[in-house]
Amino acid sequence: MAVPPPSNVTASNPASGTRRMRRIIAEDPEWTLAIVPSLIDLCLQHFVTNFETHPVLTELQPEQQRKVLDRLSPDLSLKVVANLISDESYWKRRCNQRWSVGHVEKYGNNWKRMFFERHLQELLKVFIPGTTDPNVILDLIPLCQDYVVRLQVDQFLPPVMLEPPIQDMDLTDSASETEQDDLNMDHYQLGDLVAGLRKLEILDLVFGVKDCGMNFEWNLFLFTIRDCHSLASAIKTCLTLKVFRLTRSKVDDEKARILIRNLLDHPSLLELDLSHNNIGDRGARAAAKLINHSKLKILNLANNKIKALGAQSLAHALSVNTNLVSLNLRLNCIEDEGGQAIAHALQTNSTLTNLHLGSNELSEPTATLFSQVLSVNTTLTCINLSCNHIGLDGGKQLLEGMSENKTLMEFDLRMSEIGQESEYLISGALNANREAARLRTLQPKCCHVTVSHIINNAAG
User: Fold this and answer.
1) Whole-angstrom distance, CA of residue 420 vs CA of residue 415
2) At what angle do helices 88-98 and 62-71 cross, to 10 degrees?
3) First and final CA of the chain: distance in angstroms?
4) pLDDT digits over 42-66, tens only?
5) Which of 230, 250, 270 is the C-terminal boundary of a domain?
6) Over the stretch 322-339, which tens digit does the pLDDT of each residue have?
7) R_g of the chain, CA atoms, integer Å
């Protein structure tokens, strides 16, 4: 006979009631009975957690290093990771976290280089002389000196201008208003930074302020004489520098001469860009001297104030130069006197391949000489004479020169008033030159195929 259970005991059947259950919750939410971490993994996690105070990496095996690097935070101090971690995947994570858009191909497909160049650029763009601690930049030099190849800064902030006391508001007789403004507007001096960047090849600068809005003042765009001397000394001692660009910075003749004087006989400079400034004939004469006292291959002086005398100086340098391959003088005012001088030089020059003389008030006399250039020069591949006053007769003479030219690939004559017929015929001549050049590039391959075919037939 079955004995009924005591009335104070609840049956295990769910239908008869519920039974109180105990549940154990692990302190580590990732812990599971299925996976018990190995001692090695626990040690690696300890290294990751304490990496900033006790970095351990090079002592580990390659697969262990990989695990540590994948777990490291992208917010670690640069003093810890800059010269210790070279792994590209780690620097890629840091770049992607910091910038939503990044074109690593512009940085030689090197994520570490991209990080340090952009990081340094941002620090320089917000540096305020007299307010920002200079050590913000100087302390970074030992960390990035081997990774920064290009320094591209399109903004330099001036010092904060405080309201002068009432008793000092009257200008003294010994200093003009312009001199006082210039005295207080010096920007960050790049000397120590450039000297510390051991692999710097490209220096691209604009002395101005972006997005100034209603606070616009001309002094915000002032490249002072002290800025000029400091920068000139910096580029002179930077023996690795290959490209120097200083644009939209109100560089006048005096400052251009100071800069160029310090670039004479530079061992590695290949490109100089001083476009969109206020350089006149004296600055152009200095640039002409530089052409023959350096290895310069590209010179850009577009949108300045160069006239005939400056163009004549450049032409004289071109007549004997054997290095320069590109000259850009667009948006100046060299007129026919300067244009003819350059055309004369090109009849003997055998290295220049690209010439831009657009918007220079040129007319038919210049076109006449360029017609002769086209018939004798065999190195020019690109000429731009757009936005000049060549005229119908000038266009016909250029067409005549093109009939004897076999090397020119691009000839920009837009808005030069040469007429549709001349434009059409010159375009046809250019197309013929391009097709001939294409066939020349294919000729060695065709010859190789022919020889191979002959050998195969002989073997058969």
Assistant:
1) 11
2) 10
3) 107
4) 899 999 999 999 999 989 999 999 9
5) 250
6) 999 999 999 999 999 999
7) 34
Distance CA 349, CA 249 (A): 32
Residues 51 and 144 in one domain: no
Q: Which of 199, 218, 250 is the last residue of a domain?
A: 250
Burial category of 339 from C-beta neighbours within 10 Å (exposed 0-12, middle 13-18, buried 19 and up)? buried
Residue 147 lies in domain: 108-160+181-250
In a domain, 112, yes or no: yes
Q: Are 374 and 398 in contact (CB under 8 A)?
A: yes
Tell me, what's the pLDDT at 102?
84
Beta carbons within 8 Å of 156's beta carbon, 6+ residues apart: 124, 125, 127, 187, 188, 205, 206, 207, 208, 209
Residues 118 and 81 placed together within one structural domain of the fold: no
Q: What are phi and psi of 73, to 5 degrees?
A: -75, 140
Q: In the structure encoding, which two tokens stand for residue 86, read together?
A: 């070279």
pLDDT band at 176 (very low <50, low <70, confident <90, very high): very low
Contact 423, 395 (CB under 8 A): yes
- Total domains in the chain come to 2
Structure tokens at 364: 């038919």
Both 112 and 204 in one domain: the answer is: yes
Digit-coded pLDDT (tens) for 188-235: 999 999 999 999 999 999 998 888 877 777 777 789 999 999 999 999
All residues at 6 or more sequence positions from 448 whose CB lies less than 8 Å from its CB, including other chains: none
Q: Do residue 185 and residue 222 come from a single domain?
A: yes
Distances (CA, A) of 442 to 355, 436, 446: 27, 10, 6
CA distance 81 to 392: 66
Smallest CA-to-CA distance from 99 within 86, 83, 114 is with 114
Q: Do both 130 and 64 map to the same domain?
A: no
Residues 215 and 185 in one domain: yes
